[in-house]
Design a protein that fits this description.
about 375 residues; alpha+beta; Beta-Lactamase; Thrombin, subunit H; six-stranded antiparallel beta barrel; elongated
């Protein structure tokens, strides 16, 4: 984040050069820039051209007095927020003080000016000015980040939906609107269960508070599923969905982000599912070990394999919907490679009943063509 400049500008306005020199001697410092004006017109010109943090303005000046200068400063949008401290030798009667505050003064200093009082008052208003500048910079930076994030989300090919804690849509990018067959604004404030929690019959499977997705994000975990549907142009469309929790800086759940992918029409999904069920899930004669692709640690041993998924014996725990990337060392070089990587989603797990092991069933999520060829080769040869 850009830090505001530490140099702040003070405009000193007085028709007497000796008064300007006295103020300059008291207020000069490494983090201050002092400008001087000897009349009202010069003061107004510099206030419009420069970035002023504070004005010390003499009341008694020829041609245009301090009250008139302050009133003109207040009328201009660029200068109306600049704090003005009046420096005056005139009467302290209430009517004079009231006039100064009416035209925008924030304080008064009476001549002869006490250097300690002047220094203290100037320090207070410069600190307020610096806080205001830092706040403005923060707001601008947040605005830029928000605009950039929105631009990126709108450019994404995947559907992205923002949810509040109650499961209502707060944001949807064009890809999500297209996937769900609605205009973006039509999705805002809609309950998520009415959009993508539909079952294969087109009815909502759960209400948001009772859904496995909500229970997962309440535990601070992402939720993944390929068993969701939405209605698009009167037809059911399968949705692959990942919902990730959003927390504030105090780790309190504030909402979630759902990423949606097109899983195809209901007929296509059912056909694919039937084909997977028909595929042979066989116990391999080769003893294959799985490794976590991210950490390189041993995950367990492959028991059964099909084109659609695999069953693994492991001592690690996996939750339903958890997505992992594994590597397997092949029994021999296949298609020029000695390893294969698979992206898989946990669909069930249960205790093996021996040695503290767990049996876990995985469904393959995304497979490169070369990985599919290796799986088919293993099924055929081993």
């Amino acid at each position: 984040m850009t830090t505001p400049s530490l140099v702040q500008t003070i405009l000193l306005v007085d028709d007497r050069p000796e008064n300007l020199m006295a103020l300059e001697a008291i207020l000069e410092g490494p983090e201050r820039r002092l400008l001087k004006a000897s009349n009202g017109n010069d003061a107004l010109t510099q206030a419009l051209k420069q970035d002023i943090s504070l004005i010390l303005l003499d009341v008694q000046m020829p041609d245009m007095d301090g009250f008139e200068v302050a009133e003109l400063l207040r009328r201009n949008t660029k200068t109306r927020q600049i704090p003005v401290i009046f420096c005056t030798a005139i009467s302290k009667e209430k009517k004079y003080l009231a006039r100064g505050f009416d035209v925008g003064a924030v304080d008064y200093l009476f001549k002869p000016i006490d250097p300690d009082l002047l220094t203290a008052k100037v320090r207070v208003f410069l600190e307020l000015d610096m806080q205001k500048r830092k706040l403005q910079q923060t707001v601008l930076q947040l605005h830029r980040v928000q605009k950039e994030n929105e631009r990126l989300l709108r450019a994404m090919g995947e559907g992205v939906i923002g949810l509040d804690k109650g499961g209502l849509v707060t944001f949807a990018n064009p890809a999500a609107a297209s996937l769900l067959g609605r205009e973006t604004q039509q999705l805002i404030a809609q309950p998520i269960e009415s959009l993508i929690f539909l079952d294969a019959g087109g009815k909502p499977q759960w209400l948001w508070p009772d859904s496995p997705a909500f229970k997962a994000i309440m535990r601070g975990e992402p939720y993944q599923s390929a068993d969701m549907y939405c209605k698009q142009a009167g037809r059911l469309k399968a949705i692959e969905m990942t919902i990730t929790p959003i927390h504030d800086r105090n780790s309190v759940l504030t909402g979630a982000v759902a990423v949606l992918r097109d899983g195809g029409t209901r007929e296509k999904v059912q056909s694919t599912f039937q084909e997977r069920r028909k595929s042979v899930r066989k116990r391999l004669s080769a003893d294959l070990t799985l490794f976590d692709r991210a950490t390189g640690t041993n995950v367990g041993r492959l028991l059964n394999l099909s084109e659609g998924g695999m069953r693994v014996v492991t001592k690690k725990s996996f939750t339903d919907g958890q997505r992992s990337v594994f590597s397997m060392i092949l029994p021999r070089m296949i298609n020029g490679s000695t390893t294969v990587s698979v992206d898989a989603i946990c669909v069930w797990s249960q205790q093996a009943g021996y040695g503290g092991d767990t049996l876990v069933g995985f469904r393959f999520a995304e497979m490169k063509p070369e990985s599919i060829e290796v799986i088919r080769y293993l099924l055929e040869k081993y």
